Backbone:
């Protein structure tokens, strides 16, 4: 019974280490300054780490299904806290990534149209329109990512429920198989007992028949002796 909790604790420990790594790498502004490529690399690494953390959550969901009910109430809140922590850092990662993309978009627009003037700090009206459109596209992409993440979480929960149901069904099948095996053993024993009883019955019949034959012979001998002597 201790194995499921041990594995859960191990996955939770790995998850916390991954989240700590994400915390360090998301501080991209202070860590790499204005180096855009370094910031991109850091964000790509963060995405990979978050994927690993997501895998740890999936493993924790699987392990919690096998934890005894007496302990599950202690581990369920820990799983939910880890899920909330993962969602929070995924959201922050998307925000930092969107901020970086918007910064690049502003930089490209400024270099393409000859920079900005003091009268128009954000460029011309056309430039601002393009930037607004780009910003809306980014926000739409963010919303789609959030929706996809929500669907993925719901799918994971449904998958965990299905696995739990399959595990219970497997236990029921194994119990039924054990019962059938026990019944089969009992039937074999009963059949052997009946065979022994039948053999003994035939043996007793043979003995009785032999005794009867002997008695008849003895009676005939006695009668012969009395009548013909």
Residues:
């Amino acid at each position: 019974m201790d194995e499921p909790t041990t594995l859960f604790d191990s996955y939770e420990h790995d998850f916390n280490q991954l989240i700590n790594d994400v915390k360090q790498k998301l501080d991209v502004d202070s860590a790499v300054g204005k180096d855009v490529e370094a910031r991109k690399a850091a964000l790509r690494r963060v995405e990979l780490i978050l994927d690993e953390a997501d895998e740890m959550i999936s493993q924790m969901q699987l392990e919690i299904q096998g934890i005894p009910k007496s302990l599950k109430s202690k581990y369920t809140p820990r799983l939910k806290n880890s899920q909330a922590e993962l969602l929070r850092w995924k959201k922050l990662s998307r925000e930092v990534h969107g901020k970086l993309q918007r910064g690049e978009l502003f930089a490209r627009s400024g270099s393409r149209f000859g920079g900005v003037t003091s009268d128009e700090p954000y460029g011309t009206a056309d430039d601002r329109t393009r930037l607004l459109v780009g910003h809306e596209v980014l926000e739409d992409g963010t919303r789609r990512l959030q929706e996809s993440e929500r669907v993925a979480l719901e799918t994971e929960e449904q998958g965990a429920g299905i696995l739990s149901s399959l595990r219970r069904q497997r236990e029921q099948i194994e119990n039924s198989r054990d019962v059938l095996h026990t019944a089969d053993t009992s039937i074999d024993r009963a059949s052997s007992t009946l065979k022994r009883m039948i053999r003994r019955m035939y043996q007793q019949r043979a003995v009785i028949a032999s005794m009867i034959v002997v008695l008849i012979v003895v009676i005939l001998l006695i009668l012969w002796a009395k009548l013909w002597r």
About this structure: Confidence is low (pLDDT under 50) at residues 112-123.
